[in-house]
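User: Predict the complex with 2-acetamido-2-deoxy-beta-D-glucopyranose.
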Amino acid sequence: MKATLSFATLLGLAPAVFAANFTLLQDYSGSKFFDRWTFIDNFDNTTNGDIQYISPSTNSNASQLAFVNGAGNAIIKVDNTSFVPYNEKRDSIRIESQDFYEVGSVWVFDAIHLPYGCSVWPSFWSKGFDWPRQGEIDIVEGINLMSANQMALHTFAGCTASGGSGAMTGALGDTNCNSTTGSGCTVGEKTGNSFGQGFAAGGGGVWATQFDTSGIYIWYWPRANVPASVSTATDSIDISAWGTPSAAFPAAGCNIPEFFGPQQFVLDITLCGDWAGVPSLYQPTCGGDGSAQGCYVNSVINAGSPNMDNAYFEIRSIKTYGVNSSVVATGTNAASPNPTSNGGGGGSSSNSSGGGQSGGAEGIMGLTRNAVVGVIVAGAAAVFGGLAL
Ligand SMILES: *[C@@H]1O[C@H](CO)[C@@H](O)[C@H](O)[C@H]1NC(C)=O
Ligand SMILES: *[C@@H]1O[C@H](CO)[C@@H](O)[C@H](O)[C@H]1NC(C)=O
Ligand SMILES: *[C@@H]1O[C@H](CO)[C@@H](O)[C@H](O)[C@H]1NC(C)=O
Ligand SMILES: *[C@@H]1O[C@H](CO)[C@@H](O)[C@H](O)[C@H]1NC(C)=O
Ligand SMILES: *[C@@H]1O[C@H](CO)[C@@H](O)[C@H](O)[C@H]1NC(C)=O
Ligand SMILES: *[C@@H]1O[C@H](CO)[C@@H](O)[C@H](O)[C@H]1NC(C)=O
Ligand SMILES: *[C@@H]1O[C@H](CO)[C@@H](O)[C@H](O)[C@H]1NC(C)=O
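Assistant: Here is the predicted structure with 2-acetamido-2-deoxy-beta-D-glucopyranose placed in the model:
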């Protein structure tokens, strides 16, 4: 899609319009929403949040924090019913998809409510099996009482955000995606009601992410503006009329197959920690004593309600699409140290630019070939579209 525009621009042509047709790979929704995810059973050992992630396999309370509600939507929430004494953590949920998605796929996340409130730090994001070598894409993320979503990439050193103001509607923040330097490369959403109370009041919204060799693109539409090509999509989706995305990370600044392996989704909610709990970020809107423990003491301990009453996702669906059914590395369990499932890939040796080191080579190479073919086909359609003009 984006390759089309730059190719047409190169020729001095108006952007070509063509039907980019991606077919449905997976539909995570309704009573089957939780079927293809692994529940993490650990404290937050990646961002220092004051929570304990619980799993239904070891803690029956998890079914109250991750379930499908009467409307058929998935609820993922922080415990808001327990009294948590000082020095203890609050229960929450982190799930990781067992499916990994190759370059060439499109992911559509439809939510009615996102977690928010003082100390609350939710995210819908993706990562490669080997983090950060295989990259991370933060699609939905925010803290405390923020009213706008922030998108980001985290990679090894050498990837930068190069999308200019014409390439996206969002506000470019840090341009260095180097994961070791902190925030990664970031883009702030400009469309209103993309997080917090405003998002919920507007009935939620939809994000679509295109993971392509030409770049990584994220679109956002509040509920009232979701295009028909998204809201009525069933077994295929046409992305050609989506227009300028909220965030664009073009390949010009970041060689996508070099910095990103196949991606699995993560949904989590933590509290305080390395972002929401930073005193200079927490105190201005949420108060407390401004100390390192201010967030924890002010928001996490003691009664869960009402502080945590809005700390929940309500998700209608997550749907994934590919140029055809080949660009999914499916059935790979994130908990497995060395996944090599047939036709699966997505393991630590998977590499979109070929040459996986060990294990599952056949499945991985097959996927790699198909993904590349898919991208070439999209490019060819773009050429025809350009010539037709
Ligand atoms: C998209 O692909 C699906 C499945 O192959 C097909 O049924 C549909 O007609 C295609 N749509 C367009 C616009 O090409
Ligand atoms: C976090 O804990 C899990 C489960 O014990 C472990 O597999 C993982 O390596 C830990 N991560 C870090 C960054 O320590
Ligand atoms: C489940 O929640 C109840 C109420 O907060 C608590 O007393 C109990 O210890 C929890 N069970 C586990 C296994 O954490
Ligand atoms: C893929 O392989 C190439 C060549 O071996 C390497 O430079 C690159 O870092 C690898 N990318 C990932 C995401 O593992
Ligand atoms: C990436 O971050 C590391 C750690 O801060 C730093 O040593 C390195 O120079 C950075 N590289 C780039 C290209 O920013
Ligand atoms: C907890 O939050 C839910 C909404 O997520 C709300 O319905 C409920 O009243 C809250 N409080 C308690 C004590 O459950
Ligand atoms: C995927 O699509 C490409 C381009 O249409 C085609 O060449 C390839 O055979 C397809 N692969 C599968 C498994 O359908």
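The longest strand covers residues 312-322.
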